[in-house]
Amino acid sequence: MPDAFIETAYFKDLTNRALLYLQAGYAVHFCGPAGTGKTALAMHIAELLGRPIVTLQGNDEYKPSDLVGGNSGMRRKKLLDNYVHSVWKAEESMDSVWYDGRITHACRNGHTFVYDDFTRSKPETNNVLLSVLQERTLDLSAIQKGEIKLTVHPDFSVILTSNPVEYAGVHVLQDALKDRVITIAIKGLDRESEVAIVASRSGLPWREAARIVDVIRGIRGNDIIKVSIRAAIMVATILATKGSKPVRSNPLFYQILMDVIGSEISYENDGESNSLLSKRIESELDKYTPEDRK
């Protein structure tokens, strides 16, 4: 996704719905396959909210303290009292030093919290979100002495993204958290959005970007070969770098498609993979009329 967000009708609809839910006080969860623009959409919406943004990438190794914060080291304080000239009095104390984790920092200051691929963190780690989303309080009692509960700032918002549960390393979203968020399923981008993104990212003219997108979408339509928009972006960027055209008569175009798409799919039999992919690419390229090949 480009730095300047590509807002097609498809993305505008998603944006408007998400903003409505967030303004009503609910967390928004974008769930969908890789390469459908979830992260870029989440960041775009967070920017529209006009608050500072705190981001976090889900990780299976995280513990609750990685989100909330914890004690880091000790602070030593020594007080010397010489009020009476001939008498010295010394007092010494040791206190633990607390640091805010990212979610605590966002809750305390009313920032927008974008938790990307959050289901890659364990469910027990994400349980810290339960009271934040329901009671608007962050429970610190198990981690910090003194401050037991933090009242969430009224401007605090949460935007979550995740891949489907069948992806490797993705945990099942627990029911208690599922009930506290509004999930918007993103199943795939429409053609207009894909072409706009590929043209913007690569610098290719719209027509050439559309040709690459159509080839990739045709290959993606097969039940065996699933290719994300990232493949189209890579193919277009490489062609733009070379100053080459995405036409049937260009052998470099065919080879780039083979290399890029081949990197996204895998089979136990490499020979079978290459043969099937080659046939699919040839089939898609043959769909263009002689005029399209100019």
UniProtKB/TrEMBL annotation:
SMART domains: AAA (SM00382). Its main location: cytoplasm. One of its GO terms (biological process) is gas vesicle organization. One of its GO terms (molecular function) is ATP binding. SUPFAM superfamilies: P-loop containing nucleoside triphosphate hydrolases. It catalyses: ATP + H2O = ADP + phosphate + H(+). It comes from the Bacteria. The keyword Transcription does not apply. It is found in: Cytoplasm; Gas vesicle. Keywords: ATP-binding, Cytoplasm, Gas vesicle, Hydrolase, Nucleotide-binding. Transmembrane segments: none annotated. Pfam families: AAA_5 (PF07728). GO terms for cellular component: cytoplasm; gas vesicle. Residues 24-189 form the AAA+ ATPase domain. PANTHER family: MAGNESIUM-CHELATASE SUBUNIT CHLD, MOXR FAMILY PROTEIN. NCBIfam families: gas_vesic_GvpN. Belongs to the CbbQ/NirQ/NorQ/GpvN family. This is Gas vesicle protein GvpN. It comes from Desulfosporosinus fructosivorans. The lineage of its organism: Bacteria, Bacillati, Bacillota, Clostridia, Eubacteriales. The gene is gvpN.
